[in-house]
Amino acid sequence: MSLPVEFIKKYQNLLGEEESNKFFAAIDSSSKKGFRLNPLKNNYHDVQYSLADPIEFTSDGYYGGISGRDSEWTSGYVYSQDPSAMYPAVALNVKPGEKVLDLCAAPGGKSTALASFLENKGLLVANEISKSRAKDLRENLERWGATNVVVTNESPERLSKKLPNFFDKILVDAPCSGEGMFRKDPAAMQYWSPEYVLTCQARQKEILTQAMKMLKADGELVYSTCTYSPEEDEEIVAWLVENYHLKIEPLKLYPGMSMGKSDWSKSNLPELKDTVRLWFQNGVGEGQFVAHLRNTEAVEDASSKVKKRKKKHQKKSSITRLTKDEITTVAKVLDNFVLPDSLENWQKTVLQSNGHVFVPAVDPELLNELHILNNGVELGLLKKKRFEPSHQLAEVLGQKEQKQLLNLKNETDYEHYLHGETIKVNSELRGFVLVAYQNHIFSFGKIGNDQILKNFYPKGLRK
Ligand SMILES: C[S@@+](CC[C@H](N)C(=O)[O-])C[C@H]1O[C@@H](n2cnc3c(N)ncnc32)[C@H](O)[C@@H]1O
Prior knowledge:
It holds the Pfam family Methyltranf_PUA. Belongs to the class I-like SAM-binding methyltransferase superfamily. RsmB/NOP family. It is a single chain. The protein has helices at 5-27, 71-74, 87-91, 109-118, 131-144, 156-162, 194-214, 234-243, 299-307, 324-334, 346-349, 391-397, 411-419; strands spanning 34-37, 61-63, 78-80, 99-102, 123-127, 149-152, 167-173, 215-225, 246-249, 257-259, 276-278, 288-295, 319-321, 351-353, 356-359, 372-375, 377-383, 386-389, 405-408, 423-424, 431-437, 440-447, 452-455. It is globular and about 75 Å long. Among the domains are: 83-300, 3-Layer(aba) Sandwich (Rossmann fold), CATH 3.40.50.150; 403-463, Archaeosine Trna-guanine Transglycosylase, Chain: A, domain 4, CATH 2.30.130.60. Helix 5 links the parallel strand 5 and strand 6 (149-152). Helices cover 29% and strands 24% of the residues. The longest helix is centred in the N-terminal third of the chain and has 23 residues, at 5-27. It is α+β, with helices and mostly antiparallel strands. The mean pLDDT is 95. The chain binds S-adenosylmethionine. Residues 85, 104-110, 128-130, 133, 156, 173, 175, 203, 207 line the site of S-adenosylmethionine.
């Protein structure tokens, strides 16, 4: 692989001859594949993959590959992720019930892990600035089937204006120069230059400035990149410590992880050694840098920021409550299924917007004027006296053992269903059913008296 000359010189200088040779040789070796299972799903270990090689530092991560056609994937039982990239979400140490923000979230590798750790309790706001990438993020989180997720497509600046001092935990998995991706995706090299590294550094500071506005006075921040450049790693952490009331929290070093390099930052701050670097040559996965910081700002200082917020005149919302009759119509369908605990009292909080019935994860008023792709669980669509359950609900219902369930009998039927075709079935069930393959629920369908399974797999997802 032909690395940029200035890149070679830089790392020879930083690492010395012996270690830089190992580093360059490792860039030419094959990359490591990993996947994470989804503990939110029913019998979540029931997958076709070998679980013989677990990744030590996370609960549900394993070495190995998966395919996007597998029923484990379409049903959200599994997510393919570089093993090193599993560490930032672990480092944030999220507890059920907390309010968590993943500010640079697409395609959702870390958001899906954060949703697992929250166990449907508290809130995850997964934000992505790019419209097309935000769509992928929404789809990946939809498959994951958590009930407490909001997906936004916003700039950090607009988000921070709405949600000052709001989050207990924030992950900034920043856009970076991507040196840690050179092995897996050599095309990443074409953008690299010393100037590009500095452009990334400036953007990271802008993003973090907004993140800090949203962090609670006693909140915690994880900053991560998939690059090795000290300008985007230790230098950024030193900048955070110098400009905010942030303290570096030591991260646990697992085999294959290295300490951050204090002497690679101009500040030479000794605590920088408590950050973590994952090098190709150390065998965990691709390149990653992770830092965990705690806000130690006095609570009074932070609350004064909230008071400064002006109450602007808000646009009239299209969101309304449901009538009793509408609730009955929805309940008639939902009563056939076992809901996760977090949706048991759905009648109390359910809302609708132009017929889209949803159980919000957060009061929609709070997010007024933001670009929201998902708020909680869309239960389905009310069409006059009829209710059609949503695809998202099918993925959510995969959390529980279900009776109103049709297991497709072979791979051909599964492939046909993914393609959007109807299937002739032999079943007593009628009306809306959950459709599964190998017990992995991945869609709704509807069976009529003719025993034809009508296809409700969304057009946008068909393969
Ligand atoms: C490293 S990727 C995130 C990967 C993601 N956390 C995951 O685990 O799947 C960085 C993300 O930051 C987004 N991004 C780029 N410029 C940004 C900006 N100025 N503010 C916020 N996010 C930005 C990119 O679109 C990209 O999706």
